[in-house]
Write a structure and sequence with these properties.
There is one protein chain. By secondary structure, this protein is mainly β. It has one domain: Porin (Beta Barrel), CATH 2.40.160. It has one helix spanning 2-17, and strands spanning 20-33, 35-38, 41-46, 48-60, 65-75, 78-79, 83-84, 87-97, 104-117, 120-134, 140-151, 161-162, 165-176. 23% of the residues are buried.
Length: 177
């Protein structure tokens, strides 16, 4: 067991020496789920625009690339009777990138973090899947991403309760250093 852990640590240390840094931004659509009850009114969320800003590190491993990133996610779901609500989240994501075809990289991952929904704080998690296209070793990468985002607790106290999750699709642009 100790030899396996030592080998894994050595592999990650060697990969970190060849790591690439990146920054990115995304814009897309959040298909919002859940409902909100405030002062006795129950209403569903309308779909809304969403964006993200991220920065991370890509570590090449023998079979796939491992990516860690810090991400800011924002959307403004709207309700018919209560107006627009704000969701801001900071997430730490881990992603596995599997280069199957030259210049096209599919990936899957997950993230955990902290969300602030309309003045209420909650832990959050998300699942990610996407594909990226690398412009012939150019530092710019474009991609499309699907995410399922979920707040883990009710956002509110007393009569102001809400449950929030979203399915989202985003177009992303990244710059690798």
């Amino acid at each position: 067991m100790k030899k396996t852990l030592l080998a894994l640590f050595a592999l990650l240390a060697c990969s970190a020496a060849h790591a690439e840094f990146y920054v990115g931004a995304g814009y897309g659509l959040s298909v919002n789920h859940g409902s909100v009850i405030e002062d006795g009114f129950k209403t569903k969320y309308k779909d809304s625009a969403a964006y993200s800003l991220s920065g991370g590190l890509v570590m090449p491993l023998p079979l796939f690339d491992f990516r860690t990133e810090l991400e800011y996610f924002h959307t403004r779901p709207e309700t018919k009777s209560l107006g627009t609500k704000k969701l801001n989240a900071v997430m730490v994501n881990a992603t596995g990138v599997i280069p199957l075809i030259p210049f096209i990289d599919p990936y899957v991952g997950m993230g955990v973090g902290y969300g602030r929904y309309d003045h209420n704080n909650s832990s959050a998690w998300q699942l990610l899947a996407g594909v990226e296209y690398n412009f012939l070793s150019n530092p710019f990468v474009i991609g499309a991403e699907y995410r399922f985002f979920n707040l883990t607790e009710d956002g509110g106290k007393g009569s102001d309760k809400s449950k929030y999750s979203t399915h989202g699709v985003m177009l992303k642009l990244k710059y690798t250093f």
